[in-house]
Design a protein that fits this description.
By secondary structure, the protein is an all-alpha fold. Helix content is 38%, strand content 0%. It is built from three helices and no strands. It has helices at residues 11-20, 36-45, 61-70. The radius of gyration is 11 Å and the shape is globular.
């Protein structure tokens, strides 16, 4: 992962981090957990990242599908 991210990390830093490791989404700010591009990249790498996504994105069909493709058990996080 490209450095440690915190809730105050920039969008670009968080996007880079989730591209390396989808688990990094758990360290992102609430606003970035509601960023569709960031969440989509995270769940493509780690389906369980859906659990850290905003409520609105847990209801996004494409994001849920990508999460479930990676790990079928991620469906439990969908809205």
């Amino acid at each position: 992962m490209s450095g440690i991210i915190t809730s105050g990390s920039s969008r670009s830093k968080v996007l880079e981090a989730v591209k390396q490791n989808g688990c990094a989404l758990c360290h992102a700010s609430a606003a970035l957990k509601d960023d569709r591009e960031i969440v989509l990249e995270a769940v493509k790498r780690y389906g369980y990242a859906l659990g850290d996504a905003s409520a609105a994105l847990k209801d996004d069909g494409e994001i849920v599908l990508e999460a479930v493709k990676k790990n079928g058990d991620a469906l439990k996080f969908a809205s």
